[in-house]
Structures are given as structure tokens and as C-alpha cells.
From TrEMBL:
<keyword id="KW-0276">Fatty acid metabolism</keyword>
<comment type="function">
    <text>Could possibly oxidize fatty acids using specific components.</text>
</comment>
<dbReference type="InterPro" id="IPR001753">
    <property type="entry name" value="Enoyl-CoA_hydra/iso"/>
</dbReference>
<dbReference type="InterPro" id="IPR018376">
    <property type="entry name" value="Enoyl-CoA_hyd/isom_CS"/>
</dbReference>
<keyword id="KW-0443">Lipid metabolism</keyword>
<protein>
    <recommendedName>
        <fullName>enoyl-CoA hydratase</fullName>
        <ecNumber>4.2.1.17</ecNumber>
    </recommendedName>
</protein>
<dbReference type="Pfam" id="PF00378">
    <property type="entry name" value="ECH_1"/>
</dbReference>
<dbReference type="GO" id="GO:0006635">
    <property type="term" value="P:fatty acid beta-oxidation"/>
</dbReference>
<dbReference type="GO" id="GO:0004300">
    <property type="term" value="F:enoyl-CoA hydratase activity"/>
</dbReference>
<comment type="similarity">
    <text>Belongs to the enoyl-CoA hydratase/isomerase family.</text>
</comment>
<keyword id="KW-0456">Lyase</keyword>
Length: 259
């Protein structure tokens, strides 16, 4: 992969860390950034040494949305021909390893939508979430009307999307949009610690757990429960399942080999 221009990539133990890094535009998600992000996520997904991925921005902004300056002169034919916004944005949904969004500052429009595409969100106490598209004469275009509604319910999603009002970290936690709020100075360390804990478990089992939870958003209850049962039963084909249960019975720590 050529050196990315708009993101910073590093590993912390078994955790892959991607930082959005366009400070001059509050990490607005231009096309080039989304392509770089997609490539970095795919590379971590393919790396056997990595068990979880943390996606973060800066102290001031996770991301202030799609790049308005890049978008402003596009016409209907352009966005249809390019399938804007789907084609470059949904890579995060194809990643099998858990992706944790660590959000400080603004997560607006496409920034909020990108965080919601991740498997879970940890917020700094400075985080602000919003879907301000209505103020620009558009509606959310990267899943905001669907994922925010599923996360916080119809009334709050409707209010935010119809008015552009932002929600602070405490409200986001109360509403169930974020898993946890932590002091801003501890955000990355907390997110990496969470990633490390996930990475300490069996990779195929983690992937199945993620798949099963995500199925709750795509299927009926009966279908979801059926998938869960089959995936649960599939765990019995793994050495890691035998090891996990044997270690419990023998009162020792399990050693998972990701097989
Ligand atoms: N696109 C392009 N540039 C952006 C941007 C965006 N989404 N958000 C901020 N910037 C740029 C600003 O233009 C400014 O650049 P200049 O210094 O060259 O003028 C720089 O980042 C710093 O921003 P501000 O000076 O505005 O910073 P602030 O602290 O005063 O305000 C803010 C912060 C409230 C987040 C404000 O920047 C803002 O409202 N940004 C736009 C938020 C928005 O509307 N997002 C939705 C985009 S549409 C979308 O995302 C569609 C979709 O569903 C996918």
C-alpha cells in the first residue's frame, strides 16, 4: 500500500489503530481518505496477528462528515454514476474483525454514520454526535436514517435528523448510541485495552459472535436465533472451544490458537 496521506496507521500489540488525519478539514471524509481507510481496514483484517481494530480521529473531531467542498459541485448524474456514497464507504461493514470507533469531538453527518458502521462506539466526554445534513439541503446518505433510528429509537433520531441538533456524550450513552464514556485523555488507551481484551479470545469465535450480533439488525428474531444456534454449534468444531472449557474445568487460563 502506498503511504497514506489522510490517515495514520499503527499497531499496538494485537490491535490495529487507524487515526483519521485531515486536521485542516476536521477529518472530513473525502474520497481519497475513504479509499485509504478501506485499504487499511482490509490489511488489518487479513493480518493474523491482529485481533481487533480501533478507528479514531483527533481530539477535536472524529470526523465532521462527508467533505462538503468536494461534494458541493456534484450533480445528480455524477452521484448516481459514482454510486456516491455507497461504494467507498461500506468497507468497514465487510471487515470480519471487531472495529471499535473511539470518538472524541465532532462525529457529524458521515462521521456519525461511519462511527455507527463500526461494531461499537466508545466516546470521550467531549464527543458530539449529530446528523446536520438537513442544514445543507440533503438527508443523511451513509446509513444515518437507519442506524441512528435503530440505535436511539424513532423520536430521538427523528428530532436529530429533522433539526440537525447535536447530542453530547452523556446523552449518547443514555440513549444507547455508545457503549461507554471515558475522559478524553484516556480515550485511545481505553479503546486499545478493549481491543486487546477482544484480541485475547479465539479469533474465529469472536468473528462468529460479531456476525451473530450484526444479524440482529438484518433478520427476523426467529432467523437470528436460528443463525445464532448454528454458529454456537459450530464453535464445537474448534480446538479453541475444547481448550476454553477444559481450562475452566482445570482452573487455568486458556491458551487459544485461533483454530
Ligand atoms: N467538509 C469539508 N470541510 C469541512 C467540513 C466538512 N464536512 N467540516 C469542517 N470543514 C472545514 C471547514 O471548512 C474549515 O476549513 P477552513 O479553515 O478552510 O475554512 C475547517 O474544517 C475547520 O472548520 P470550522 O472553522 O468550521 O470549525 P468550527 O470549530 O468553527 O466548527 C463544525 C466545527 C461545527 C464541525 C463545523 O465545521 C461544521 O459545521 N462542519 C460541517 C458539519 C456537517 O455539516 N457535516 C455533514 C456533512 S454532509 C454528510 O456527511 C453527508 C452524509 O450523510 C454522508
Amino acid at each position: 500500500m502506498p503511504m497514506p496521506e489522510h490517515i495514520l496507521v499503527e499497531t499496538r500489540g494485537a490491535v490495529g489503530l487507524v487515526r483519521l488525519n485531515r486536521p485542516q478539514a476536521l477529518n472530513a471524509l473525502c474520497d481519497a481518505l475513504m479509499l485509504e481507510l478501506g485499504a487499511a481496514l482490509r490489511a488489518f483484517d487479513a493480518d493474523e496477528a491482529i485481533g481487533a481494530i480501533v478507528l479514531t480521529g483527533s481530539e477535536k473531531a472524529f470526523a465532521a462528515g462527508a467533505d462538503i467542498k468536494e461534494m458541493k459541485d456534484r450533480g445528480f448524474a455524477d452521484v448516481v454514476a459514482d454510486d456516491f456514497i455507497g461504494n467507498r464507504w461500506e468497507t468497514v461493514l465487510e471487515i470480519r474483525k471487531p472495529v471499535i470507533a473511539a470518538v472524541a469531538g465532532f462525529a457529524l453527518g458521515g462521521g456519525c454514520e461511519l462511527a455507527m458502521m463500526c461494531d461499537l462506539i466508545i466516546a470521550a466526554d467531549t464527543a458530539k454526535f449529530g446528523q446536520p445534513e438537513i442544514t445543507l439541503g440533503v438527508i443523511p446518505g451513509a446509513g444515518g436514517t437507519q442506524r441512528l433510528t435503530r440505535a436511539v429509537g424513532k423520536s430521538k433520531a427523528m428530532e436529530m435528523i429533522l433539526t440537525g441538533r447535536m447530542m453530547d456524550a452523556a446523552e449518547a450513552e443514555r440513549a444507547g448510541l455508545v457503549a461507554r464514556v471515558v475522559p478524553a485523555a484516556e480515550l485511545i488507551d481505553e479503546a486499545v485495552k478493549l481491543g486487546e481484551r477482544i484480541a485475547s479470545f479465539s479469533r474465529p469465535v469472536v468473528a462468529m459472535a460479531k456476525e451473530a450480533v450484526n444479524a440482529a439488525f438484518e433478520s427476523s428474531l426467529a432467523e437470528g436465533v436460528r443463525l445464532e444456534r448454528r454458529l454456537f454449534q459450530s464453535c464445537f468444531a474448534l480446538a479453541d472451544r475444547a481448550e476454553g472449557m477444559a481450562a475452566f474445568a482445570e482452573k487455568r487460563k486458556p491458551v487459544f490458537v485461533h483454530r
